[in-house]
Amino acid sequence: xxxxxxxxxxxxxxxxxxxxxxxxxxxxxxxxxxxxxxxxxxxxxxxxxxxxxxxxxxxxxxxxxxxxxxxxxxxxxxxxxxxxxxxxxxxxxxxxxxxxxxxxxxxxxxxxxxxxxxxx
Length: 120
Prior knowledge:
Elements: E1 4-7, E2 10-12, E3 18-24, E4 34-39, E5 46-51, E6 62-64, E7 72-77, E8 82-87, E9 96-102, E10 114-118
C-alpha cells in the first residue's frame, strides 16, 4: 500500500508563488508517472500536471493543463520518493485542494491534499 502525503499549501496573494511537495511511502513510486490534481469547490477534480518516471540521467517528461502552462512546473526526486509542483504567478482561479497521485490515478492512493488559496 502506497501512501501519498501532500504539503506546502497556504494562503497567497495573486501573483505569488508556492511549492507543493508530495512524499510517497514506497519505492514503487519511482516507476510511476505521477500527477498533480486539484479540486475547486463545486467542481470536479482535474489533472494539472504529469511527469513520467524518467531515467537515471534525465528527468521525466512533463505535461501541463493549458490553464497552468507557463506558470507551474512539476518535478520529481526519485531518491527522496517526492514529487513537487512549483506554482508561480498564482491566480484566484488556482484556489483548490491539490492532490498527487499516479497517472492514471488509483482510488486507494488519494491523500488528504493540501489547500491552496489565492486571495488578496
